[in-house]
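Long-time lurker, first post. I've been practising inverse folding by hand and with some scripts of my own, and I keep getting stuck on stretches where the structure tokens seem ambiguous. Below is the full token string for one chain I'm working on. Before anyone asks, I'm not after the true native sequence, just a reasonable design that respects the backbone. If someone could post their per-position residues I'd love to compare against what I wrote down in my notebook.
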């Protein structure tokens, strides 16, 4: 049975898309079949893998509209793009912003349209990774309803910690309102880390004291590095762009830790 992982944080600039791409390709490098779903109207994951988001006729908006109209006649490969590094992509572009308005107008099932689509795709993949937009809107709620687990990338600074509680409350609401009672938090991943600063150590202490007993905080973290920011402009993962660099090694270690945590939980 495949796992659906949402990469979510309502705060922008926390390395969310970078983590979605590099976790996804890290899982591919371990021999898994992986679909990355771009669920951000900015299309950052789509562009970060080298595709022209604005030129695409079929995107996740297309598929969600098919779910709304109950049109299930498409093939499972319909609209899926294949990246040279072995990951499949369901792309997104600005059309997703328009789709949110259409979802809001629905009376029934508006939170479950993405789940309806991904449930049709689950048997094709070992992992489906969703790159959520930096907002806690209806599109992101769709991701949380569809997902089995949430990874929360967190910029290691005080203001990011303050915004974490809102995301945790949203996840709790999705569970308590019966939209996805089995949703769990896979863990918190520190990103953009400068581990020589006292602020990082302060953030670690704050999170450990506040959430450490109930939420996994991954041991491996992602250091700040210019190479990680450059890689998307070449349509490559960090593994391909900077093979022996510290960020590629960090994402390899994080991927291993993520897989180990799944085995621990059975």
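-- Answer (accepted) --
I ran through it position by position. Result:
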């Amino acid at each position: 049975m495949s796992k659906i992982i949402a990469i979510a944080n309502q705060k922008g600039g926390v390395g969310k898309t970078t983590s979605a791409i590099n976790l996804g390709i890290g899982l591919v490098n371990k021999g898994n079949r992986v679909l990355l779903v771009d669920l951000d109207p900015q299309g950052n994951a789509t562009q970060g893998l080298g595709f022209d988001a604005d030129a695409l006729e079929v995107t996740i908006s297309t598929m969600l509209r098919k779910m709304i109209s109950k049109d299930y006649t498409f093939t499972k490969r319909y609209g899926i793009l294949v990246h040279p590094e072995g990951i499949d992509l369901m792309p997104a572009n600005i059309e997703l912003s328009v789709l949110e308005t259409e979802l809001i107008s629905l009376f029934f099932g508006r939170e479950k349209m993405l789940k309806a689509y991904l449930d049709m795709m689950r048997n094709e993949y070992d992992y489906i990774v969703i790159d959520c937009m930096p907002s806690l809107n209806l599109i992101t709620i769709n991701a949380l309803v569809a997902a089995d687990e949430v990874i929360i990338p967190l910029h290691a600074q005080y203001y990011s910690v303050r915004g974490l509680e809102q995301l945790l409350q949203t996840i709790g609401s999705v569970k308590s309102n019966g939209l996805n009672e089995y949703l769990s938090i896979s863990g918190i991943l520190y990103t953009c880390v400068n581990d020589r600063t006292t602020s990082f150590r302060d953030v670690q202490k704050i999170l450990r004291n506040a959430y450490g007993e109930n939420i996994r905080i991954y041991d491996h973290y992602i250091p700040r590095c210019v190479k990680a920011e450059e890689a998307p402009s070449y349509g490559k993962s960090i593994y391909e762009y900077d093979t022996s660099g510290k960020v590629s090694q960090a994402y390899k270690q994080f991927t291993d830790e993520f897989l180990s945590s799944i085995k621990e939980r059975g």
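A couple of notes from the structure itself: The chain has a mean pLDDT of 93. The chain is about 45% helix and 15% strand. Happy to go over any region you disagree with.
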